[in-house]
Design brief:
Blueprint lengths: L8 E2 L8 E2 H7 L3 E5 L6 E5 L1 E8 L2 E6 L9 E6 L4 E8 L3 E8 L9 E6 L4
Antiparallel strand pairs: 1-2, 3-4, 3-10, 5-6, 6-9, 7-10, 8-9
Length: 120
């Protein structure tokens, strides 16, 4: 039988370091992924079902549990210090990453991304 656990505040085992559950729900990444430079594999992820290499420096990720709307924040970076990585476009169920080198040329890179917002 399923039950709900309803609380307003979470605390550590000692009863210290309290945080409101709204902070946990609103302040946590709803999806994240680290992907290979060639766009063919996901190294690790949360709430991501697949990755598509849609061209040089273009990766489209599919979100398992959709976002509530397209007003979420997409954050992206690369471990390659010469790359600029952006969340180029996003829908409730997918988002696309684009990576460029310092000269502005599209270039494949290892990508790391996270989404902040509300789930559907």
């Amino acid at each position: 039988m399923a039950r709900d656990l309803r609380v307003n505040t979470l605390k550590d085992a000692s009863g210290n370091n309290s945080v409101a559950t709204s902070v946990v729900a609103n302040g946590s990444a709803k999806a994240w992924a680290k992907c290979s430079a060639d766009g063919t594999s996901i190294t690790d992820s949360f709430n991501i079902t697949s990755l598509a290499d849609t061209g040089t420096a273009l990766q489209t990720l599919t979100i398992a549990s959709d976002m509530a709307n397209t007003n979420y924040a997409g954050l992206a970076t690369s471990i390659d210090s010469t790359c600029i990585l952006i969340v180029d476009s996003h829908a409730t169920g997918t988002y696309r990453l684009v990576s460029r080198n310092n000269a502005g040329t599209l270039t494949d890179a290892i990508t790391q991304s996270a989404l902040m917002g509300d789930l559907a």
